[in-house]
Amino acid sequence: MSRKWTNTNSQYPQMPYDLIKEMLVALGIMGVLVLLLAGIFSTPDVPALTAKQVAQQAPQLLLQNALDDLSGQDAISTYGPPYNNTPGASQSLAGISPEQWAGVQIPIKSAQVNVIGPLTKIEPVNPSLKAPLTTWQRATSSQQNAWVQHVESALSKAKIVGNALVLPAQTPGDYGPLPAMLNAYLSLARTGLLEDAIDGGTGPMPVIDRTKSLLLLQDVPDAAYAAKLDMAGNEWGIIKETGNYPGAVWLWFYTLLYQIPPFSTSASADLWVVLTTGGVTVILMLTPFIPGLRSIPRLVGIHKLIWRRYYRDQRKRRGVRA
Q1: How many domains is the chain built from?
Q2: Would you say residue 82 lies in a domain?
Q3: Range of the domain at 127
Q4: Which tens digits make up the pLDDT trace of 224-277?
Q5: Is the pTM higher than 0.85?
Q6: How far is CA 284 from CA 195, 255, 294, 296, 304, in A?
């Protein structure tokens, strides 16, 4: 029906319409637009990076990551709070340092959590690990670092033969127990159980807190993976899609700040960005109560453009009354 009638109790014209038909048409249009825009602007729907994937595709990268953990050269070992008390690592601005105030909330020693701990857990099913682990734990820090340096210098010339790392021949003892430890580590990663061994799951219930395993591939492996997908920090990666979840597009302002000075050049960039974003958010929330700011919408007059029909009718009505 397209007949129009006027309600005696209202000054506005009304007409009947099919609500179901309108809803279906709207959903159809929206569906077509979603599919079209998703095909044009969507990003790759890839699964989260895992140790198993790195072990299969770039085993030496995973082993280098393990060596960094063992020598304390990984990103987490020098991060500071909430993981450790690394001197000078906390960001601060004019005496403001939430990291120092909160302190160490998630203590992590990368060598123990990411490498030694998981290998110790599989020792009962791999008894040959007992001697290498004992040798490593009884060695001094300087001796451990010497072994790591020798393996690191030879890693670029090493080969993966039959899923095992084969290092170039060296003076006996130069590599220490690391070849046996790294091969066991690589095998564990290939099973897909390395993350579970890191998080320490026991019993039939699944592990809920995955914080430690999520930090395993920080720095080089995650950065290399993100770069292949054009999702690095300088490519606004945080607002793009990851896995089966939509990108955090509402963080566009947050990530924008990282691209411009002084945020992009500051050693306390994270703190700068958080404080700036928080300050802007508070100002927006209090805009209705701040003299001057609350008058901006009225002065700009965008509402008059949106409600132009209403204001046109009001002018006509005033003209008739005049």
Answers
A1: 2
A2: yes
A3: 51-214
A4: 988 888 888 888 888 877 655 667 788 889 899 999 999 999 989 999 999 999
A5: no
A6: 42, 18, 10, 12, 22
